[in-house]
Amino acid sequence: MANDMLTNAQMRDIEALLHPYTNAATHRQVGAHLIERGHGCHVWDDSGKRYIEGMAGLWCASLGFGDEELIEAAREQLGKLPYYHLFGGRTHEPAIELAEKIKELYPQPMARVFYCSSGSEANDTQVKLIWYMMNALGKPQKKKIISRRKAYHGVTLVAASMTGLPLNHGSFDLPFDFVKHTTTPHYWREARDGETEEQFSARLAADLDTLIEAEGPDTVAAFISEPVMGAGGVIVPPKGYFEAIAPVLRKHDVLWIDDEVICGFGRTGNWFGAETLNMQPTSASMAKQLTGSYVPLSAVAINQQMADVIEAESARHPALGHGFTYGGHPLGCAVGVKAIEIYQKRDILRHVRQIAPVFQARLRQYADHPLVGEARGVGLMGALELSPDRKSAATFKAPGKVGARLMSELLKHGVILRAIGDSLAFCPPMIITEDGVEEIFAPMEAALDATYSWAK
Ligand code: PLP
């Protein structure tokens, strides 16, 4: 039975929608939160209440809400060519220009860009292109993909398999068998007593090596990693992690997919997280900040070796049998070109580098609160992981409840953040100012205290 305190819109929502990442029974009781409009780093709900968006939506609105230049770029493109596709050799200028920019900005040489609409589609595409490539190379058995526990790569069947979170597997008959998961690079939670960050990294690289050896190196095609795990709880890898992983992948001739869906386009203070975290990928997925999320668009960038093999293989068939109706949508590409132009001309990366230390210092002020296990982050992303005992990195008896409570305390104070289990995630628009950072953190002490008393 629905709650009779709900508004008409909430009732209609309950009857009309199946909500992603929402508990349907709870939703029926509490109703939806209706967001009506946004401007800068703020959104307003249907009661007129204003919120600071400390998560940029879903790690998305890098340039905030209502950026006139992005809106104008969309309007102009809609007037000129509102839809077209890239099938059968057709093209359009925004698709070419955006691909050129991606190639120019990515830290490793990339040869070709393939467009999709979402991060999940991009990651599924990665696997399909790699399988296509392995078949072309006469290595049909080299198909397994290694991901990591707590990784997030999306929700389509293969992407969800690569995601390393039980929520995305349970009742969905996932993960697929060809996907294997290795250890999470979370030093605070996973390191052994007395182990340094470097020793921990070396141990995780050894875990990966052991897994590849056990599976058989000639059956393992690729390793996929986010530079910083986002939806797994903003887990920043320890010192030396990717430096230790790289030689293992090289030794076994395993490709490396870089999932930049959150980190790409400035979030960590460089254009791509691969630069900040020193990764050596062979291909990369990007979305979200690619267009500031005003229009759905994602992209897969592949290196020269992959491009050569895939192009040659496509010539053996009538065509490359893969592509999406909306992949490379001119609206998305035009807005993407404009978003990159804005990042460059407003020097958003410099702004991120200036504001990130303020944000990170503010976040770490709560590291000693009795409810906080760890305060962590890099650039303009971070998390406060709640724990009943910091020293042992203990988890709560009923996981997720305390995090959800803290999130709703902050909502009362006009701050939107996201609880990922018992980690409170932060990812504000990259245009946030010191005042905006202050607005996010101003109610934090009171909200933590109230949640702590409730949890006791
Ligand atoms: N990869 C990463 C790192 C993500 O954070 C996400 C979404 O949050 C995805 C992939 C999936 O993207 P989408 O939700 O657009 O399918």
From TrEMBL:
A matching Pfam family: Aminotran_3
GO biological process, alphabetically ordered: biotin biosynthetic process; gamma-aminobutyric acid metabolic process
Superkingdom assignment: Bacteria
Stored InterPro entries: Aminotrans_3 (IPR005814), PyrdxlP-dep_Trfase (IPR015424), PyrdxlP-dep_Trfase_major (IPR015421), PyrdxlP-dep_Trfase_small (IPR015422)
SUPFAM superfamilies (alphabetical): PLP-dependent transferases
Keywords: Aminotransferase, Pyridoxal phosphate, Transferase
GO molecular function: adenosylmethionine-8-amino-7-oxononanoate transaminase activity; pyridoxal phosphate binding
Signal peptide as annotated in the record: none
Record-stated family: Belongs to the class-III pyridoxal-phosphate-dependent aminotransferase family.
Protein name, entry field: Aminotransferase class III-fold pyridoxal phosphate-dependent enzyme
Organism: Thermohalobaculum xanthum
